[in-house]
Amino acid sequence: QDPKLYPPGDIVFLDRGEGTTALIHLHGATIISWKCNGVENLYLSQSSVFDNKKAIRGGVPVVFPNFGPWPLGPQHGFARIKRWSIAVPPRKDHNGDVIVLFTLDADDETLAMWNYKFKLVYTIVLTPTTLMSTLVVHNKDTKSLGFTCLLHTYFRVANIETTAIEGLQGLIFSDKLKDGKEVKETRKQITVDKNYDRVYKDAPKTLFISSGPDPARNIELVTFNFPDIVVWNPWEQKAKEMSDFDDDGYKEMICVEPGKVIVPITLEAGQQYECKQTLICKL
Ligand code: BG6
């Protein structure tokens, strides 16, 4: 992803040096690129519509206040289709790591859908080998509020056939393509060869996503306060049915999405909830 492809007012560019960069679009505070030593690790559909209305197809959209279909508003909530503010512009700390803070506050549009005053603070830190994304949800209302949230991370892979996810063995997942039927995962390495839409519960804090061979990517995914992991790939037919998804894109991506989606969080007035994903680029 080349920052020059986007209107300068729409994106924030983080540069750690030596080919380690990140690009964040203010529409949804969507991270649309994370390169580690020159290698792109996120999938972004070339058919994605950048109209500042539709959710960006790829990168790391922020899902809040609802994962999935929702009677009060659009699927996966509104955070991914709102324009976020830059609370603290990118700056380097004493180590040379780059940090930036974004915020999203309730406004007339969100209050009309979901009548709660909230504030989201989203901090992104880029180090030579990691991309850290921390989301803090603040209840700014005088009443309690309930929500689910998730970071809808689209990993870029060289070839879905050689892609494996490790760390989910022994967990119970519900298969959204089979009416939420619960199944125990028996495999050490999860490989995907068809339309997948599964929600794993009580996942460990560390997972591994490996793919290759050209380029080989080994990513460690470390989570905090995200007990659920969604694994999604639309596969050939569903990819074709989505106008903003490249027809062959399913071969080059896997979504591994840390979330708090099975049991919603309830925040009393004034309380906050912090959750985080760290992506670590391993050699
Ligand atoms: C996943 C869901 O997180 O996102 C899927 O589990 C859904 O059910 C997918 O199809 C994509 O959603 P959307 O709204 O971005 O097309």
Automatic annotation (TrEMBL):
Descriptive protein name: glucose-6-phosphate 1-epimerase
Pathway this chain belongs to: Carbohydrate metabolism; galactose metabolism
InterPro entries from the UniProt entry: Aldose_1/G6P_1-epimerase, G6P_1-epimerase, Gal_mutarotase_sf_dom, GH-type_carb-bd
Organism from which the protein derives: Lymnaea stagnalis
Isomerase is among the record's keywords: yes
Source taxonomy: Eukaryota, Metazoa, Spiralia, Lophotrochozoa, Mollusca
Gene Ontology molecular-function annotations: aldose 1-epimerase activity; carbohydrate binding; glucose-6-phosphate 1-epimerase activity
Active site: 152, 257
Amino-acid positions noted as binding substrate in the UniProt annotation, renumbered to this chain: 57, 75, 80
GO biological process: carbohydrate metabolic process
Protein purpose: Mutarotase that catalyzes the interconversion of beta-D-galactose and alpha-D-galactose during galactose metabolism. Beta-D-galactose is metabolized in the liver into glucose 1-phosphate, the primary metabolic fuel, by the action of four enzymes that constitute the Leloir pathway: GALM, GALK1 (galactokinase), GALT (galactose-1-phosphate uridylyltransferase) and GALE (UDP-galactose-4'-epimerase). Involved in the maintenance of the equilibrium between the beta- and alpha-anomers of galactose, therefore ensuring a sufficient supply of the alpha-anomer for GALK1.
Keyword terms: Isomerase
Family: Belongs to the glucose-6-phosphate 1-epimerase family.
Entry's EC annotation: 5.1.3.15
A GO CC term assigned to this protein in UniProt: cytoplasm
Reactions this protein catalyses: alpha-D-glucose 6-phosphate = beta-D-glucose 6-phosphate; alpha-D-galactose = beta-D-galactose
